[in-house]
Specification:
By secondary structure, this protein is mainly beta. It has a single domain, classed as Immunoglobulin-like (Sandwich), CATH 2.60.40. 13% of the residues lie in helices and 55% in strands. It has one helix and nine strands, in the order αβββββββββ. A four-stranded antiparallel β-sheet has the order 3-2-6-7, with no helix packed on it. The longest helix has 15 residues. The termini are far apart. The N terminus is likely disordered.
Length: 115
């Protein structure tokens, strides 16, 4: 019974260490208007799904940027991409902006430009 319990716990421990830690996600606003960042998520290419829907609520003026430090789950040393959901005050629309694909390592920096 102990051997079975131990073998069941191992995959969970391995998954817990699959975090890509302390990722600086910089959102640059190039829309010509003030925006409000609402959510940040990242894509897990291994599982073909979006993860970590972080809720935030920060205004960013045009031609300014804001950096968020996050741990991205399940993508350590794997390809991922960050997406930012935002509200544009000029247009009155909510939209997604997508960063480029990258291999996630601890203390990485990634930028998402909102146009």
């Amino acid at each position: 019974m102990i051997a079975i319990t131990g073998s069941l716990l191992m995959p969970m421990a391995a998954m817990a260490s699959d975090k890509c830690k302390n990722i600086d996600i910089t959102v640059q606003n190039k829309t010509g208007s003030e925006i409000r960042v609402k959510k940040i998520k990242h894509y897990d290419y291994d599982k073909s799904k979006w993860r970590s829907n972080f809720n935030v609520s920060n205004k960013i003026s045009n031609n300014y940027q804001k950096t968020y430090t996050k741990n991205l789950q399940y993508v350590k040393n794997d390809e991922t991409m960050v997406a930012v959901y935002y509200y544009n005050f000029r247009t009155g629309n909510n939209s997604w902006a997508y960063g480029s694909k990258f291999v996630c390592n601890t203390n990485d920096n990634v930028t998402v430009v909102v146009n």
